[in-house]
């Protein structure tokens, strides 16, 4: 399995086009934010002096949620290509167990997601600091790193299950394009979750990426929100607290089921449970394919 993981990692990072297209959704989000979305949101927050820092942290948190999915999807392209070229049959006919072969694809995709997420996190910190924000504290950095690992596991499991049913490179490319496009909406970046119809919100909250996005935002935005909404605390603390809660709900920093706040521990548990469920489904899917060979 180790040799297969190393092979898949080398193939992914050698293919510059694959890396680029797996990051395409992230690049589109950055472009839209810098050109259009960022200024419009900041202008609507005139009463908050550090609005730019808040929105910069907000968009970077969203990127961390998205990149872990799109890059794992790109890494699974190796498996689809191997299946298309018949290389998978060579692996399956070798003395290596099918579980090891499948595990090689899954773990290499997960490692790709983690590596690219770590790179994105470093970029996010540099960008936020360059725009006047503060670097995260040590405890917050550890929380982000742990969340990156959990998010990559959840996204790898989910994407692995989807890819197990894709039999051609054309189908994979189409699926990648559709999923990459939807990620901006599911992560609440193109359109803040709070302004979406309630029925759509319930659908989005069923996707692990939405929970990951909210968790990343709660970590990255804790200090900027404390500073921004503390400016008028002496005037009317209750009103400021209400405004902060409404802002968090609208921007998807906090998720709600109706009027009930979904605690971070529940979101973490949801990511863990979905990881287990989809990993189990993925293993079952590949075992069925073995019988079909």
What does this entry show, briefly?
The chain contains 14 helices and 2 strands; from the N terminus they run αααααααααααααββα. It has 293 residues and is an all-alpha fold.
Keywords:
mainly alpha, 293 residues
Question: In words, what does this structure look like?
Answer:
- By secondary structure, this protein is mainly alpha-helical.
- The chain has one domain (2-292).
- It contains 14 helices and two strands.
- It has helices at residues 2-14, 16-22, 24-43, 51-75, 77-85, 87-92, 98-130, 138-163, 169-186, 198-204, 208-220, 222-228, 237-250, 264-292, and strands spanning 256-257, 260-261.
- The chain has a two-stranded antiparallel sheet with strand order 1-2.
- Helix 3 runs parallel beside helix 9 (169-186) and helix 4 (51-75) packs antiparallel against helix 9.
- The longest helix is centred in the middle third of the chain and has 33 residues, at 98-130.
List the helices and strands and how they pair.
Elements: H1 2-14, H2 16-22, H3 24-43, H4 51-75, H5 77-85, H6 87-92, H7 98-130, H8 138-163, H9 169-186, H10 198-204, H11 208-220, H12 222-228, H13 237-250, E1 256-257, E2 260-261, H14 264-292
Helix pairs in contact: 1-7, 2-4, 3-4, 3-9, 4-7, 4-8, 4-9, 4-11, 7-8, 8-11, 8-14, 11-14
CA-CA gap between termini? 21 Å
What's the order of the H and E elements?
HHHHHHHHHHHHHEEH
Largest sheet: 2 strands, antiparallel
Parts with pLDDT < 50 across at least 5 consecutive residues: none
How many domains, as an integer?
A: 1
**Beta-strand residue fraction:** under 5%
Gyration radius, rounded: 20 Å
- Secondary structure category: mainly alpha
Helix content: over 70%
- Overall strand count: 2
Shape: elongated
Strand line-up across the major sheet: 1-2
Number of helices: 14
Give the overall average pLDDT: 84
């Amino acid at each position: 399995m180790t040799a297969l993981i190393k092979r898949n990692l080398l193939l992914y990072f050698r293919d510059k086009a694959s890396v680029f297209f797996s990051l395409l959704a992230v690049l589109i989000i950055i472009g839209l934010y810098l050109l259009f979305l960022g200024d419009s949101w900041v202008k609507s927050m005139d009463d908050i002096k550090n609005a730019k820092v808040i929105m910069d942290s907000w968009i970077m948190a969203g990127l961390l949620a998205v990149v872990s999915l799109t890059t794992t999807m790109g890494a699974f392209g190796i498996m689809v290509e191997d299946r298309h070229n018949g290389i998978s049959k060579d692996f399956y006919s070798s003395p290596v167990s099918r579980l090891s072969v499948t595990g090689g694809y899954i773990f290499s995709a997960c490692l790709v997601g983690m590596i690219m997420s770590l790179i994105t996190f470093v970029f996010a910190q540099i960008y936020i600091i360059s725009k006047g924000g503060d670097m995260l504290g040590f405890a917050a950095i550890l929380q982000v790193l742990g969340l990156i690992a959990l998010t990559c596991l959840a996204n790898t499991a989910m994407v692995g299950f989807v890819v197990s049913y894709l039999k051609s490179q054309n189908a994979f490319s189409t699926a990648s394009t559709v999923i990459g496009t939807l990620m901006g909406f599911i992560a609440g970046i193109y359109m803040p979750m709070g302004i979406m119809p309630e029925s759509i919100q319930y659908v989005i909250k069923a996707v692990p990426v939405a929970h990951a996005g909210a968790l990343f935002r709660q970590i990255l935005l804790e200090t900027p929100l404390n500073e921004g909404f503390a400016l008028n605390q002496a005037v009317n603390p209750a009103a400021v607290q209400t405004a902060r809660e409404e802002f968090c709900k609208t921007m998807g920093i906090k998720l709600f089921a109706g009027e009930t706040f979904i605690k971070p521990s529940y979101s973490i548990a949801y990511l863990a449970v979905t990881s287990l469920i989809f990993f189990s489904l993925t293993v079952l899917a590949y075992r069925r394919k073995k019988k079909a060979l």
